[in-house]
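[#protein-structures] MJ: dropping IclR family transcriptional regulator here for a structure pass
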Amino acid sequence: MVGDGRPSNARDDGIQVLRRAAAALDEIATAPGRLRLVDLHSRLGLAKSTARRLLVGLVEVGFAAVDDDGRIVLGDRLLGLVNADAAHITSAFRSTLERVAEATGETVDLSVYRGGQMLFIDQIESPHRLRAVSAIGGRFTVCDTANGKAVLALLDDDDVEQVLAALEPGQADRVRTEIRTIRTERVAFDRDEHTDGISAAGIAGRAAGGNIVAISVPAPTGRFSAHSDRIVAALHEALESPVWTD
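AK: finished. structure tokens for IclR family transcriptional regulator:
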């Protein structure tokens, strides 16, 4: 028995269901509108009947939805919770973003780690005619972006290795080397990796609610190289903001 009077195996079964539901939502968020039931059960390593029951439960509580073609997306109830959370984060970080934008003269992005990717939730655009702009609501990968690599540097080694397992061995080794540097210097870089002609620097930390949040400054590579010291200095100053929880 456990403290609430339930048998321990019932508690364990409940935790397993929650873990499976979280894993399913991560997969759906990573490929919204592109997965069907057959993809979900394959990615989760579950029997098709188990995956179907899991999906039915998620749909019933509004955390997932299935369109007429059988493609799965996040449900309105979950999106409402995510949007409320994002609104809280953007409000808390807005003044910090403004200071970085004023110090650098470049675009400044705010993103949060969700489903193994970086979800962009706020942005201040550069006044330059030639500038880097990412769509709010867009998702970026973590291994070839400044904000993503900054987040990886916060994770435990086991979690990092799970992410790097999808990469070619040479690329994984390069990212590991970068992570060791980021953990010391606190700033990560993307030099023409995610988008040709665009470079970026980024920082990350933990915020209220256990969220992992990143601030990044992307710019055309030539201008980024010329002003990288100023950008890095502004990001280091942003790390001193009280908005971070650790």
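MJ: nice. The chain is about 50% helix and 20% strand.
AK: one more thing. The mean pLDDT is 87.
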